[in-house]
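User: Good morning. I'm curious how flavin mononucleotide would be positioned relative to this chain. Could you predict the structure with it bound?
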Amino acid sequence: MSFRFDETDPQLLIVYTAGEYTAENYRELGRRWVARIERGERFGVLIVNEPYKPQESGKSDHSQQEYEAEEINRLVNAFRRDYRHLSRINTAGYANVYDPEAAWVISARAQAGKWESWQVVAESRARYMYGTHGGIFTDVQDAQQWLKSQLLQPPIDLEGLHSDLAAESTNHVGLYYGSTTGVTEKVAFDIQATWQQLAGETLVPINIGTVKDLSELLAYDYLILGVSTWNIGQLQDDWEIAFPQFDSIDLTGRKIALFGIGDQYGYPDNFLDALGILGNELIRRGATLVGYTDPSGYEFSTSLALENGQFMGLAIDEINQPELTESRISQWVTEVMDVFGLRYRAASTPDASTF
Ligand SMILES: Cc1cc2nc3c(=O)[nH]c(=O)nc-3n(C[C@H](O)[C@H](O)[C@H](O)COP(=O)(O)O)c2cc1C
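Assistant: Good morning! Here's the predicted structure, ligand included:
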């Protein structure tokens, strides 16, 4: 057991950790976190990473470590799906403290900007996973002070991430996505912003992980669905969980536009495979896919997302080509609006002669 918990301060859930930790450690952390949420308390979570030396002998074997890592990933994602919205209200902040002597911290600090960019990652990860602010520190007291200052702030604003919003929406275009580390979510919100700008209509991006019954998708005339590829050619895990429900859904005649997120250099033999897996399933269920795109400008070997030499939707690679994302989205959104038959409402300039 390498997590030690300190809950003596009602405003803080403190975890001391050193070395390899197990899925059971995370399960216990989750239990304590959820218990506080359910009691309606407001608190900060503080993870203190103590220095440790990896043991030369008696190391757990590699496959066991992989199993633990996958299980931890699964637990954190389950927390995100089930508790992020409640956690947003109750968790004031998520702070990590690292040993300042650790070589990697020093090297990160020595390179100008690295520490800052790490802070940005910590903030966006905490927002995405726990619905709260995130920070990294090298001093426990600094972290505690920061968490106490966060307790005085109102909960952060997580826009449109719950499916209840779907019921309130009067849209005829449904926008759903699955996202493990928040990249597809960010692209979904970029699509929303572009759609708003071009059509004047507010789409509500909905995380597929919050959808209990996929037949909810049938409430819309048109759908835009986003998926990232994980685990070498697999669906992102919220889509993986929802996927079997397609068996009982008839999408005959529905127009659906897809967007896929992947890493062309990291996974050149499986680039955007999940886009293809989802696309082929939708076609089997009777849907008509729209918004195919040209694969020139990407470097990869094979992809299940190709059909007749075209990607089955918008292809985004935020890891290697982030600078192209904005223009790819705006071109694709314009095309999709056109195919959906939704009038492109360009900012109209009033005709002077009518005055
Ligand atoms: C373990 C792992 C496996 C991945 N497998 C693939 C893959 O097979 N094909 C691909 O195009 N991208 C793959 N990716 C890249 C992800 O799709 C990429 O990081 C994406 O931005 C994640 O988006 P999300 O945070 O919205 O889930 C993989 C990433 C990781 C960490």
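Residues 160-168, 346-355 have pLDDT under 50 and may be disordered. The chain has two domains: 3-151, 164-339.
Let me know if you'd like a different ligand tried.
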